Amino acid sequence: MADNTEFELRGINHLALVCSDMKQTVDFYSGVLGMPLIKTIELPMGWGQHFFFDCGGGNALAFFWFPDAPEGVPGVSAPKNLPDRGELLSAVGSMNHIALDVAPDRIEEYRDKLIAKGVDVGVILNHDDSEFGIAPAMGEGVFVRSIYFKDPDGILVEFAAWTRDLGLPEDVRHEPRTAADRTV
User: Fold this and answer.
1) Which whole-number Å values give the CA distances from 172 to 129, 155, 168, 175, in the listed order?
2) E strands within 94-135?
3) Which residues, in sequence order, are bridge partners of residue 148?
4) Could you say which residues form the signal peptide (predicted)?
5) pLDDT at residue 10 is higher than 80
């Protein structure tokens, strides 16, 4: 990976999301995914709760529960379905998905384990630089393999396994698009 010459960042401290049911969220992230619950906070003045889960590598995933939070809107606040089922779109400013890093040699095992726990999991995707970005099988051009599934609130979660180091000149070759390129 490339070095940051501006700030010595050490990874994601935590990503904070919003859930509709904290107990259901704890059951999923701790019970199904095995992520230890490491901190719970009762917010002042009845504002809600803020819970933190250890997601490895010194990183945390956090959830707010607000008693008056509006409902999520599929296709706006998160994709409507899994990417291998033709859905990827979410709104500007939304959090599209959480990608948790896993070892490349465990991706098949983890998919089977999630299915055994009753989680609806997509097929293993071999991301490459081909026209559609997906290779039919693991090969030389694949840079990450992944599976996608949703949590109880419809938050898209990915188990992602890097298959090689990134940052080569061919990895950074596209010009960034601007607001003027949007079709909306």
Assistant:
1) 11, 28, 7, 9
2) 98-101, 125-127, 134-135
3) 158
4) none
5) no
Q: Which residue has the higher pLDDT, 73 or 184?
A: 73
The one-character DSSP state at 176 is P
127 or 7, greater pLDDT? 127
Q: Taking Cα atoms as reference points, which of 72, 156, 80 lies closest to residue 121?
A: 156
Contact between 147 and 140 under an 8 Å Cβ cutoff? The reply is no
| Angstrom distances, CA of residue 127 to CA of 106, 114, 124, 131 | 16, 21, 9, 11
How many C-beta atoms lie closer than 10 Å to residue 88's C-beta?
15
Convert 40-71 to b/e letters by CB count within 10 Å (16 or more is b): eeeeeeeebbbbbbbbeeebbbbbbbeeeeee
Q: Label the pairing between strands 98-101 and 156-162.
A: parallel
SS3 132: coil
Distance CA 123, CA 116 (A): 15
- Nearest one of 65, 77, 147, 138 to 109, comparing CA atoms: 147
Alpha-carbon span 157 to 159, nearest angstrom: 7
Strand partners, 160: 101, 146
**Given a cut of 90, is residue 133 above it in pLDDT?**
no
